[in-house]
Fold this protein.
Amino acid sequence: MIKNKTVVNQSLTINYYLLICVSFFFLLLSSMSLKAQEDTLVKNHDEKAEEKAFDPGTFIFEHIGDAYEWHIATFGKTHVSMPLPVIVYSKEKGLNIFISSKFHHGHEAYNGFYIDEDPKSANKGKIVETLSNGQVVRPFDISLTKNVLSLLISVALLLFLFITMANTYKKNPGKAPKGLQSMLELLVIFVRDDIAKASIQKNHEKYLPYLLTVFSFIFLNNLLGLIPFFPGGANLTGNIAVTVSLAVFTFVITTFVGNKNYWTHMVNAPGVPWWLKFPIPLMPFVEIMGMFTKPFVLAVRLFANITAGHIIALVFYSLIFIFGSMNIYAGYGISVISILFTVFMMFLELLVAFIQAYVFTLLSALYFGLATEEHEHKEQHQQH
Amino acid sequence: MGLVLPEYGLLFWMVLTFGIVLFILKKFAWKPILSSLKERENSIEDALELAQKTRDEMAKLQADNEKILAEARQQREELLKEARDIRQKMIDEAKEKAAEEGDKMIASARQAFENEKSTAIDEMKKSIVSMSVQIAEKILKQHFEDPKKQQEFLDTYLKDIKLN
């Protein structure tokens, strides 16, 4: 017993040391990178005519953002990228569908459309057009961007995986699962038992298709986002539009399945003093705000977690180039540390990929559970 | 700012795609998967239940068997005991009977022997008597051939009588 205890204590202290070391390194690196950034910025101004210096901000935001082409690699000055279809509707020119290679990596305009490259513009990196009156506006833009393609790829993968799995069940009914089937079954059972059954009191089967789809979608895209090259690498679940869409689905379902109990609770929460409700409807206001903040938080949490993971990995890589631009050997030196930290972050991100999928699904399930909860509030609140 | 503002193009594609995927997966994946899982779980549960039931039955059977065995053993013991008793009794009876018979035989033999003996003794007595009489007769004859002696004898007797 005593021996075990000391072992545990030892490992705990080791963990603490590790944590302290890691945070210290982070501090050191971030301060260095800031300094380096300043230096490069200064340098940037000096040698602007000579060559575009490495700018970590642009580098990072280009990687986590969306694009009209899927950049795969650059060899010297040759960009290898996959052009994607652009679909824009302009008031003046109508519907335009063309391939994004017409822009020549954003250097040329096509049919009056061009990619705004002004760093101060609100539409930076987006397709804009100059109207006949000289005004620069964004056309209605539903282009198949990098993220949309990534979405389609991930969805195709998702459909393939789970329909294959379903067919395996049909093919070998009543047999022990094996291979892909047993791997995915783990997730399905996890969602069913630990998320849906645990959070939704009654009729949890009704919500399972949505919960399973959301879980597998987020998990798969989180994992695909960790793969640095095509077909991964798009920051799909770290895109606010994607997380907002998912949160909207959860919100719509919660609102539609909400029973009398839920709405009563919303408008006239039982067990709350009347003066919180009557002259100024404070509680109803808070409750109704909560109805919207819940999905909002869902969206922001997923977006922030995944984006942060990508940013950290990219910052580590940027460090190599920042140091490299100061001194080539410093760049080589820092690359070792950068890679080590990125490997560490990758493992952390693997965990985060699962945890965020789990949290999103669990909270969605909890909201459904709350919206369909049936119990005698009066009794419960009197007891408290 | 562009990072935290949802892009409507992607929003549009996402809602559309996700909706379709949700529908397709629900119909072609989740439904068969979940029903198969449930079916399998039920069958496993049934099998486990059946196994438990069978185990219980087996235990019951075993208990019954043991009971029957014990009963049989007891019965055998009883039978053996009874048989032993009967044997003992038979032996005892036979012994008793034999002893009785023996006694009887000995008694009858003794009786016969006694009878024989008495007859023999009687006969012996008779023959001894007759022989003695004969001997006496002979002796007397021989003795009393001489009249003088007869006289002498008579005199002795007479003397005795006189004494009386």
Remarks:
- Chain B has a mean pLDDT of 87.
- The interface with chain A takes residues 1-15, 17-18, 21-22, 24-26, 28-34, 36-37, 39-40, 43 of chain B (CB under 8 Å).
- Chain B has one domain: 13-157.
- Chain B has two helices and no strands.
